[in-house]
Design goal:
Elements lengths: L1 H8 L4 H23 L5 H30 L4 H17 L6 E7 L2 E6 L1 H26 L3 H25 L19 H19 L10 H25 L7 H21 L10 H7 L3 H13 L6 H15 L5 E7 L4 E8 L5 E2 L8 H7 L6 E2 L11 H9 L7 E7 L2 E8 L10 H62 L5 H26 L10 E4 H11 L1 H6 L3 E5 L5 E4 L1 H18 L5 E8 L9 E8 L6 H4 L22 H11 L3 E6 L5 E8 L13 E5 L2
Helix pairs in contact: 1-2, 2-3, 2-7, 3-4, 3-5, 3-6, 4-5, 5-6, 6-7, 8-9, 11-15, 13-14, 15-16, 17-19, 19-21
Amino acid sequence: MLTIFVLTRNLRSNVNHAYAVWGFSLTVWNFATFVKYQVQDPAVALWWVRLINFAVVFLPVGVLHLCLLIAQVAWPRLLRAIYAVTLALAACVFTPLYIKGVFPTAAGFYGETGPLFTCYSVIYIFVAVTTLTMLYRRQRHLAGLHRTRIRALMWGYGALLVCGTNDLLPLHHVTKYPVIGLEFYPIGSMGAILFGLVVGYGVLQHQLLDIHVSLNRIAALLVRMTFMFLVGFFLLLLVSQLRLAEFKMGHYLTFLAVLAGTTVITTTLFPRFIGFGEDRLERRLLGDCLAYQDRVREWIATLRSVSETRQVVPELHALLVQVVHVKSFQIILLDETTLNFSLRHAHPDRLLGPVEGMHADTPLFQYFRSPNPGYLVCKIAYAMPGETELERAARQQLKVFDPEFCFPFISDRQVFGMLLIGSKSNGDPYTREDVRLLNELVRNVTLVLNQVRLKNQIMAAQEQELLGRMSRGLAHDLNNLLTPVTTCLQFSAQGPTGQDQAEELLPLALRNIESVQAYVNEALFFSRHHRLEVKAARMDETIRAAADSMDPRARKKQIEFRMEGLAPLPVEMDEVMIRRLLGNLISNAIDASPVGSAVQIQLIRLPRTEASRDWVRVKVIDAGEGISQENLGRVFQPYFTTKDHGDSQRGHGLGLAIARRIVHLHGGNLSIASAEKKGTTVQVDLPTRQLAAGTDAKATVAVATHT
């Protein structure tokens, strides 16, 4: 099963082909040996003995080929020559030149060897010594994980050679062990099974072969059932050898079938059956990749809803530390304003800031510009033989961070950041499946970070456009306001001849100077990074205070304030800012209202939609001319105004922009509904309590129209 599984992962892989040759040979050897022990007829036994030898012929060259590929050693001519000799011997196995006949022993029938078997014995010894020598020399030049893999192969192959050589003794009519004098006992199959488990474990856990093992729950269940089946089989074998009971083959098969059925039914109906104890051994065998993969993929799915970098980093931190068990990692990103790379996040904590020596001409960036670099291996234990000078130079550049892998954030072939992964906190090495999942994780994080970068670039462009529009509006309005002042000063400079004209312009000039001062103060509001001075205050009292400050203007137009719902209502807010906000809205309503009308001010407690706080709504309603559909979409643009009277009542076009800024600082919403000849309603929704991040909240601004 393992051989078929490995082969089907990649039918074109040379490693998988070599593994298939070895795996099928091993399988045929074990199966034919089992059947041979049950056969009593010499003629039938001869056929099975020859089949065993047919499979065994391919084992030495199969193991050599597999070990050469895993150790990345190239001996093409020698390998082709051994394959040619092996094929020639295999073609003669079913002839008397290889096996003449069979003879009975206490351990079953064994073959009478022919002259070609002697040839095979020479090749067997040569290939075995060559393979072990190559593996030994190779592991001396490797480190860490690669050395562990090669040593596992050496021990497994050594056991196979000892057990296999033991089973060759009867072929040379040696029925007792030299020196000790004990009767011969076949252990070749046991060595084959041991070697199969060593390589199988390498495939599942250490990824000896170039395949991606991705166990889902069904595959994991099959693996667990297989282990239970094997445990039951060997226990039955032990009981039969101890002669505690009389066993026949039917008894074996029946019991194993009952064991398999019991396992399936019990684990299906009671999935937590016998669930006590620790699962270290199981996680060790299966690679601990079930829940691990699920949690990584679940987190990747949640990335689609993330819109800011500050949301990604804490969750990525938790995933790497708690799920992947990373001991250390660093995130380096490009600062778009300074065009320098900076360390943005590190675990454990370390000094954040610019990273020296990171630019497009360094080996690290040249490596990632090469075709399909994927990621950079930073530890020699994971590096494969044949690395380039560029790869070594790139690894040296990151030496200060001591990472094991470097995964780049790349957009349009440009590196804008990287994730450096350190060793695991539990000391385990990274498997190929670990690296594949991390690579998939980084690709998805790259998409999110790049979307944030693009959004920030768009916002920066919009801010530049807004700044230009504000500058043009500021220059235009200041020129208009300062023109009477300049004219007044020019008349004053003419002496007595211009005195009369200067005196006529003086009141207008003074009013315009006051307007310029107010204008500049309002413009400065946008350049300041305001921090809310939040405290509990009563919204009803704040509304009354704002209305009282506007009362003189209202009296001039004989406008009445009609207040509704002003019950005591405590709200956490910056009272000074909210009073300014309400004063601005009431002032706009007074300006828009006809003489003798009324301005309605309503305070409403909204139905609760959040468990931790309530919301309040303030409405300011006038009965003025309203706002046209064309202008309604522009009312929040700085320096846009409909109050173009050319005197002290002329609007600056900053009132609603400032009002919106104040509402945003409180995490609230501001909307305007208006239609021509139907008046205007300005609605402000504010929370009664500020959350921890409330001062940074970005609220939406809605513009509605009456129907």
